[in-house]
Amino acid sequence: MQNILRILGQTSYEQRRREFTVDGKRVSACVSQECWEALEDISIQEGVSLETLIAGVARRCGRRSLSLELDLFAISYYQIASLPAGGLRDVEPANLLPC
Is 23 helix (H, G, I), strand (E, B) or coil? Predict the structure, then answer.
């Protein structure tokens, strides 16, 4: 518990906006710097560019807020990664997106 409180105490909560092109359209998302760092780490882990990862989330969320969907995707990804082996069989983090 102390580690979680320490980490939360160091979280900036500053929102950063970034723009990407998805299917020829400009989209933007505004999430915390920590979320951008998590998404960059996920893209490296999955062997895709950050732009490709963002595009995949953007295509699935339709009219919903891309910023919210990116937050949810990062959380879902790390929740799945923290499960013991075989905890959820055949589930990929991208399948957990709520949209």
Answer: coil
Token representation of residue 83:
């499960």
State how far Cα 3 lies from the chain centre.
22
Structure-block tokens of residue 43: 């893209």
Sign of CA dihedral 87, 62, 47, 35: negative
Sequence-separated (6 or more) residues with CB below 8 Å from residue 61: 69, 97, 99
Which has the closest alpha carbon to 80: 70, 67, 89, 68?
Answer: 89
Structure tokens that stand for 59 in this block: 């295509």
Residue 67: give its domain's CATH number. 1.10.3990.20
Provide φ and ψ at 89, rounded to 5°.
Answer: -75, 140
pLDDT digits (tens, 9 = 90+) for 15-62: 888 888 888 888 889 998 889 899 999 999 889 999 999 999 988 877
What is the domain range of residue 57? 2-83+91-96
Quick one: tokens of 30?
Answer: 């505004």
